[in-house]
Amino acid sequence: MVSPGEPLHLRSAGREWTLNLSDARENAVLVAGPAPARWIDPVPAVDLVECARGYAAAVAGRAARATTLGGDAYTVLILCRALHLHATGRPAGKAAAARWVARRHPRWSGLADRATAWRLGPDGPAGDGHRQVLAFAVWAADELSRPSPVEDAAGDLGRPPAPRCTSG
């Protein structure tokens, strides 16, 4: 694993890595060696939805502690991605998910647009929009607590529910 400011190191990949592994499998740009699809199994959409729900709940729970525009942008855009995945079963990038939320939920279109701009602009202290970010986090958490169309379509599948995926 490579994280900014840290040396290369190994880490166990638990269920919280499901979204990252799926993204690597489906979207990796191959430089050398075998394609990731040869050694990373496909991830069922219901598992992606469950992991996105758990991660989004953790992000929403930390939203009040965000003190910068970058923190607010991250909160909004991660929740947009989770909402898109929850509704469609397909992952989307931050900008695409924000556009989807803006179209699907006009009440939040201005916030989604601003979060995209905050992400691309210079960071600074969280501004007047922070209260709207907190309201969005509450709303998104409520939306994500409901069964998704993906889960409804999959039914029980005869397996136990996937453990919740969260981030530490």
Could you give a quick summary of the protein structure above?
With 168 residues, the protein is mainly alpha-helical.
Description of the molecule:
The structure is a single chain. This protein has 168 residues and is mainly alpha-helical. The chain contains seven helices and no strands. The chain is 55% helix and 0% strand. The radius of gyration is 17 Å and the shape is globular.
Keywords for this entry:
single chain
What order do the helices and strands come in, and which of them pair?
Blueprint: H1 18-27, H2 45-62, H3 69-88, H4 94-104, H5 109-120, H6 130-145, H7 149-154
Helix pairs in contact: 2-3, 2-6, 3-4, 3-5, 3-6, 4-5
Largest β sheet strand count, sense and barrel closure = none
Give the termini separation: 16 Å
The coarse silhouette is: globular
Helix content, binned percent: 55-70%
Poorly predicted runs are 156-164
The succession of helices and strands, N to C, reads HHHHHHH
Radius of gyration over all CA atoms, rounded? 17 Å
Average pLDDT taken over every residue: 86
Strand proportion: under 5%
Q: How many H/I helices?
A: 7
Classify the secondary structure makeup into a structural class.
mainly alpha
Strand tally: 0
